[in-house]
Specification:
single chain; 144 residues; alpha+beta; VC0802-like; 7-stranded antiparallel sheet; 5 helices; 33% helix; elongated
Length: 144
C-alpha cells in the first residue's frame, strides 16, 4: 500500500528548506507535496519515492514524522472524472479523511491520493476498478 509522509514543521523561515535539504542529501525524490498552516506549526504532506528512508532521515534531524496509508488512484484527467470517483466512494459509504491530487503531463493522467477511514482495500479496489479507475501499487506511484 502507498504511503504519505506527514511532517510537523515549525512555522518559521528556513524549516521547509531544512526538510528539502535532508531529502535531497538522502537521494529521495519528492513526487508531490502539500502544506497546511496550523498556527505555530504546519503540516507538510509528502509523497516520496522511498517513504521509510525519508521518515528515518528526517527523524534523525529531529523532525516529527508519521507515515499514513493512502490509496493512490489513477484517473483520466477529463471533466467529471473526479466527480465520478467521489460519487462511487459515497455510493459505497467510504469516508475520505484527507486527499490531494495532481496531473501528470503529457499523459493527462490524474493521481488522487486519499486517506480512507477504516480502509477496506479489497472492497474499495473492486468497485473503484469496476468503474474504470486504477489503484496504483506503492511502487507504481513512487516511480511516476
Amino acid at each position: 500500500m502507498a504511503k504519505q509522509l506527514n511532517v510537523f514543521v515549525e512555522n518559521r523561515p528556513g524549516r521547509l528548506r531544512s526538510i528539502t535539504e535532508t531529502l535531497c542529501e538522502s537521494g529521495i525524490n519528492i513526487i508531490s507535496f502539500t502544506t497546511q498552516d496550523r498556527g505555530d506549526f504546519g503540516l507538510l504532506k509528502l509523497i516520496v519515492n522511498r517513504p521509510q528512508d525519508a521518515k528515518l532521515a528526517l527523524a534523525e534531524k529531529g523532525f516529527a514524522c508519521a507515515l499514513k496509508d493512502i490509496l493512490a488512484i489513477s484517473i483520466k484527467d477529463s471533466p467529471g472524472n473526479l466527480h465520478k470517483l467521489t460519487s462511487i466512494l459515497e455510493d459505497h459509504n467510504v469516508n475520505v479523511i484527507d486527499a490531494s491530487g495532481y496531473v501528470i503531463e503529457p499523459e493527462h493522467r490524474g493521481i488522487c491520493c486519499m486517506e480512507i477511514e477504516d480502509m477496506y482495500i479489497e472492497r474499495i479496489e473492486k468497485f473503484v476498478e469496476e468503474a474504470g479507475f486504477k489503484i496504483l501499487e506503492d511502487e507504481e506511484l513512487y516511480e511516476l
